[in-house]
Amino acid sequence: MSWSIKVGRIFGIDIKIHLTFLLILVWGAFNYGGSAGPLYGVVVTLALFTLVLLHELGHSVAALGYGIPVRDITLLPIGGLARLERMPEKPLHELVVALAGPLVNVVLAIGLLPLVAVLAALQGETFSLRMLMQPGLLGLLTFLLSANISLAVFNMIPAFPLDGGRVLRATLGFFTDYQRATQVAVTVGRVFAIGLGLVALFVPGQIFLALIAVFIFFAGGQEGQAVAAKGMLRKVRVAQALTPNAVALSPEATVGQVASLMMTSRQPDFPVLDPLTGQLLGVASHHTVTQAMQQGRWRSRIAEIMQQARTVPTIALTASLDEVQDKLAQTSSRVAAVYDGLHFRGLISLEDIYRVFGFLNRSQSSGRRIGWQAG
Ligand SMILES: [Zn+2]
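^ thats the input. predicted complex w/ zinc ion below
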């Protein structure tokens, strides 16, 4: 079950709210309602999250401008999250995408300021923080003005993966490589996260700040690890990770024959080849064969139950393993067919990537260097 429900679609991007978001509405009803009651509190909370949504749309539109697809935007109690298909790696692109969110809030604040000033003058109010707490149009607009300023300032704290942290990584990226820039940004982010955590500990009622500090600490580290893994996989070509002498199947082989072969082999997937041309017809995996056995189809030909070749993503022999990883993620497949021009050369799967990564990781931590060539 998914915890997010779709509420709309803007610029072709699904807008979702996480179910826990409903809690924040209840919280907002009582905290922002004041003398005007809970309904006004809900209006204020929804207005606040509209600003968060516009902020995320800022990032998303900038990403789309660089040809990066945006999967969806989800509103959570601690803020919004725009999921990009991939992170922009060129420093300039990342800088623009990271700044686009806070920029939306700056523009909105600049637009709201004269509105609030005129309305306050008309109502004979002197401009003060007290206006925030007064229910009504002036109070709401003042609240939105201050919320825009807070959103812009808070997100620009250089704590990766907050926007400011991404700006920091992008800026470092002009002087050093992506891996190193990420490492520094993650470390700086963690120092800030600990700082925020301490503030949350000593200032009462800062539960959200505490949650955000925990989020920065772990999410930053996780993204840092993913970048490091990608950097390692980028140095390895598909040709170096292909299992040599992999067993291929004839389309005439029966499920029973393949099952006994699978019991004695460590190979996760078996290509089914045309015996005359050597071209790939399909893929037999443990899963499909086990399923056929459960249905009692021992005598069926493997060609009848295999995954057809046209549904298997393809990758070039010269591609790097991080490209394979991206391709498998995009197509939600765990195996891809490797081609050298028009010739089928083998299958590469997530297991192969894990195996190579585990090997590189161990060899790196033991201090020895393996001569992987980016050929
Ligand atoms: Zn942002």
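Residues 55, 59, 101, 155, 163 surround zinc ion (CB under 6 Å).
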